[in-house]
Amino acid sequence: MNTYLLYSQIYVSLTSWRGKNLDKQDVQPLETIDIEQFQTDLISWFQKEQRELPWRKDKDPYKVWVSEIMLQQTRVDTVIPYFHRFLELFPEVKDLAQAEEDQVLKAWEGLGYYSRARNLQSAVKEVYEKYGGIVPNTPKEISSLKGVGPYTAGAILSIAYGIPEPAVDGNVMRVFSRILSIWDDIAKPSTRKVFETAVRELISHDNPSDFNQALMELGALICTPTSPSCLLCPVRDHCAAFHEGTQHELPIKTKNKKQKHVKMAAAILVNDKGEILIQKRPSKGLLANLWEFPNIESTISYVDEKALLEDRFASHYSGNVHLNRSIGQLEHVFSHLIWNINIYAGTIDDVSASELQNVKFVSIEELDQYAFPVPYQKMFRMYQLEKE
DNA sequence: AAGTCGGGGGT
DNA sequence: ACCCCAGACTT
């Protein structure tokens, strides 16, 4: 019963399995999937071909946790340097639990999706206080932690604790959509459950860690989105899509919508001591709790904009504001919107502005102690280039 | 279920 | 341009 899982049995347990073929008049003989052989082929390949990654050096649940949060929607090569720096700053649960949020955000600067960092620290605090610093090892407890969703819960449980839970990410859905010929739209939230059910049937109970990691490694190295290297695939004998030649049609994924365009204006304002005005963003929403330069959303025409900005800034910061010059403009693309920013430089009195909450005057040397979103980093670089 | 939330790299 | 990436949370 454990050794072979008849294809028809899978079909019974998953109504959407091979749903496309239900309508085909010419149904081919049902294949069987040799589960043990599949596990062996997959895991041996992984043990031989896996990349050396910093979070694979040991299975410390805290390190696995940090890596999994960083890897959400983020490529391995991007994460590696962040992972090293983060663990140097916060080697253990206690260190992250007791850190200043500003320092955590600074360590996350440039990585994006900053709520990951704030949720991670919040959850680590809970682990430190409620679980004595030990990352919990039950699905219920770990899933209740802030920022730990179905994927991350399964990843930590399987990789750090060897518990056979599915960890279904984009890789796993792509890989199994091909192996099992699943034609559900993987862009729909409900589809993830189809793949979780599949993984529960197929996962190795001897080595859930390598099984789950192998699926993701396979998706990253072999079973890639546009041009899968099927001839190098260790499980192509088990793959329905390879058998049918449909690997380029799978997975099914509906397109995402276009970004909205937002016009902005922002300024580098300097006081008479040569210090620059910065402010902390609100604690909710886009780029929450990061720092920025004074800015407004603006749909005003370019000629009127400068006067409007001087007015708005002067009244908001209660000081005399002078915009000397326009430095240029820059575009920054987010996943759901596009900022087009007109950039100015000028001066401001620091009498009242420094009394405002979340507003500071800092020297150029102090600037890099604060976490800035990339668009404002770009903006400051333009300012420095223009000044020379 | 749809929208929000970053940034970079590949094609 | 458009796609994708070791997704989660809010509405």
Fold and architecture overview:
- Adenine glycosylase active on G-A mispairs.
- It is an enzyme of class 3 (hydrolase).
- InterPro entries: A/G_AdeGlyc_MutY, DNA_glycosylase, Endonuclease3_FeS-loop_motif, HhH-GPD_domain, HhH_base_excis_C, HhH_motif, MIG/MutY, MutY_C.
- This protein has 388 residues and is an alpha+beta fold.
- The chain has two domains: 4-244, Hypothetical protein, domain 2 (Endonuclease III, domain 1); 260-387, Nucleoside Triphosphate Pyrophosphohydrolase (Alpha-Beta Complex).
- The protein contains 15 helices and nine strands.
- The protein has helices spanning 7-13, 35-49, 61-70, 76-89, 93-97, 101-108, 115-130, 139-143, 150-161, 170-179, 191-202, 208-221, 240-244, 302-317, 374-387; strands at 4-6, 32-34, 260-270, 276-280, 291-292, 295-297, 321-333, 337-348, 359-362.
- The strands form three sheets. The chain has a four-stranded mixed sheet with strand order 6-3-8-7, with helices on both faces. It has a three-stranded antiparallel sheet with strand order 5-4-9, with no helix packed on it.
- α9 (150-161) crosses α12 (208-221) and α10 (170-179) crosses α12.
- The chain is elongated, with a radius of gyration of 26 Å.
- The N and C termini lie far apart (74 Å).
- It binds a DNA duplex (11 and 11 nucleotides) through residues 67-79, 110-116, 119, 146-152, 155, 167, 169-172, 188-190, 212-213, 216-217, 219-220, 225-227, 253, 255-257, 285-288, 332-337, 373-374.
